Amino acid sequence: MRLEDLGYNKSFEEYKNENNLEGFEIGRVITEHKERYIVKTADGEFEAEITGNLRFTAKTREDFPAVGDWVALTTYDSNLAIIHKIFPRFSIIKRQAVGHFGEIQIIATNVDYAFLVQAVDRDFNINRLERYLTICNASKVNPIIVLTKIDLINKARVDEIVSSIKARISDIAIIAISNSTPGGIEAINAFIQKGKTYCMLGSSGVGKSTLLNNLSGKTIMKTDTISESTNRGRHITSYRELTVLDNGGILIDNPGMREVGIADSSGGLEITFDMITNLSKTCKFKDCTHTNEIGCSVLEAIENGELDKDSYENYIKMEREKAFFESTVTERKKREKEFGRLMKNYKKDIKSKGGKNNLI
User: H or E stretch including 104?
Assistant: First the structure.
């Protein structure tokens, strides 16, 4: 397999040459599991770890490799490898780390398009869909909405769901499919381009693994039967994995996400809720929170029926979540800076007392 088949392009080649990485193998991380990685190169797949220096200099989780990354590595005959450098990423899909305030979890990197997968029978939720859109917009990844399991409801209900999406979300492609029929797979294949990377985002049981198997034409991800009590497939995927499809597209599957915490620092909310963003420009006060101010254009639009109230409430919720996340990040960085200053003064004090070697 050529590196170009994995998405390697001129920009990555230029970076390799500019940073004198000719002596290393180049590969792409296709699987990540507890800080051990499977990296695919032109010569095969290698189980890899990062160098001690990479681990020591890492300040956040974003400094570690993730599925989708291009890396420079040294390979060995035993199919083991050491990762020395991570190439710059042109996109990073990320969210708040579950259970760790102020920290980031990387979902995938170097992604061109994201399939936002929701099952129409019970999983469908426009508020969650707007969360996925915000993550994509913040990451500069093009979203495509995929509605699965349409065979479980009637056509009138499918049309109703599609109409409800278009009423709140504009200019995004929507594909309604059944994983049990070939027509849906053909519709998705029409969007897949050779050499481009696609990521699937969605909750557990919406049919992502079945979709991956159908797109690849073989069983890559194990799927389970539908639960009679919930009418949902049981969660199977437990790690991220990159797969090259027969048509040349590159697809990353992900574990189902119960929580989609917003970690937006790139204007994703403003893009997702562009109508609110545009309305806010004509509010009476520049620091308008759009909650109770007199002269708020956003509140006036809701009263006039120009703005969907549910979409507005979802925006306010995510805006507050974003503000809390940013304040948590700021507080954590402040504590780390204070600790660094304390350690620096401590080392200086030990050195001045002639006890430098006593510091552990």
Answer: strand 104-109
Angle, to 10 degrees, between the axis of helix 309-352 and the axis of helix 126-139? 50
Each residue of 50-93: pLDDT tens digit?
999 999 998 888 899 999 999 999 999 889 999 999 999 999 99
The secondary structure of the chain in percent helix, strand, coil, rounded to multiples of 5, reads 40, 20, 40
Helix locations, the chain, DSSP H: 10-18, 52-57, 126-139, 155-168, 182-189, 208-216, 268-272, 274-280, 297-303, 309-352
Phi, psi of 325 (to 5 degrees): -60, -45
Distances (CA, A) of 188 to 121, 192, 215: 20, 7, 8
Q: Which of 306, 318, 305, 325 is nearest to 272 (CA)?
A: 318
The whole model's pTM is what? 0.78
pLDDT greater than 60 at residue 7? yes
Across 16-103, the runs of DSSP E, i.e. the strands, are 25-33, 36-41, 44-50, 70-75, 80-86, 92-96
- The domains located in the chain, with CATH, are 3-86 (2.40.50.140), 92-253 (3.40.50.300)
DSSP letter for 97, please: P
Please count the other Cβ atoms lying within 10 Å of the Cβ belonging to residue 40. 19
CA distances, 313 to each of 37, 257, 291, 294 (Å): 41, 22, 10, 18
Dist CA 37 CA 19 (whole Å): 23
- 271 contact partners, CB below 8 Å, separation of at least 6: 134, 137, 138, 277
Give the pLDDT score at 33.
Answer: 84
For the chain, what's the residue count? Answer: 360
**What is the CB neighbour count within 10 angstroms for residue 200?**
23
- Report, as an integer, the average pLDDT of 156-170: 93
Between 192-196, 281-285, 349-353, the lowest mean confidence (pLDDT) is in: 349-353
Helix (H, G, I), strand (E, B) or coil at 224: coil
